[in-house]
Amino acid sequence: MRIRMLLIVVGVLMLAWGCSRETVSSDKEATEQEIAKMEEHLAEMKKKLAEEKAAAEEAAKQAPEAEQQVAHAKRTAKKTPPAPVVKKVTLEAGTPITVRTTSTISTKAASTGEHFTASLEEPLMAGMKMIAPKGARVDGVVVESDKGGRVKGKAVLAVTLASLTTGSGKRVEIATNTIGNQAKSAKKKDAMKVGIGAAVGTVIGAIAGGGKGAAIGAGVGAGAGGAGVLLTRGNAAEIPSETVLHFELAGPVTVTVK
User: Fold this and answer.
1) DSSP output for 13-75
2) CA atoms within 13 A on the CB side of 27
3) Nearest-angstrom CA–CA distance, 40 and 45
4) Dihedral angle at the C-alpha atoms of 51, 52, 54, 57, nearest 10 degrees?
5) Which CATH architecture has domain 91-184+234-257?
6) What CA–CA distance (Å, rounded) separates 187 from 108?
7) Where are the domains of the chain?
8) Element at 133 (helix H, strand E)
9) Is the pTM of this model over 0.85?
10) pLDDT digit string, tens, across residues 83-112
11) Strand partners, 98
12) Three-state secondary-structure class, residue 136
């Protein structure tokens, strides 16, 4: 009976020991799993910290460049003036344009279609807005340059304006009225030439044969003098340098100004 009880006790102890061993083994596995999870989590945190550190270092490197760019932008903004306000202004037909010639324009040298230059004698205004200052360049065209016929014909010169340069340096095409000039009569000069020719002819005739020769010589001399006039044109028509000319716009002109 005692042996049987002893065997029962031994069996209970062995069963308890086996259960305890299984429990310990199970707890050990659970612990190892928890440790593995914590290590994995720790590795992820280390990786994240490394990435954040790298990003911070890169930002620190780029910070001076960004500051330099900001400083440069501020300096540029201070130096760059604001964009000018541009608007269009219309000069109406009849607007006066007074110019001063910079060289002599003459039928002796100028041909029809030839260009000449002048300068504004007075500022060109559109209300209170100045389009071109005094002295601005103006370009003109010789629309007629007729040297005139011989004896009776008179030389004729006519000019007009074709463009002007605004205060901003822009060239603007314009159309104006025409100003003409006619040469002075050369009749007195021609009569003098004929008289001189007659006198010379009289002297030649007297030398050749007395009174009758003188009369003949005078006729010949007058004829020679007349031939000289036929071969000579009259005075040239010209507009001297530094001449002030008053033009008017033939039509409206739109100008872009700042």
Assistant:
1) HHHHHHHHHHHHHHHHHHHHHHHHHHHHHHHHHHHHHHHHHHHHHHHHHHHHHHHHHHHHHHH
2) 6
3) 9
4) 180
5) Beta Barrel (2.40)
6) 19
7) 29-60, 91-184+234-257, 187-232
8) none
9) no
10) 667 788 999 999 999 999 999 999 999 999
11) 246
12) coil
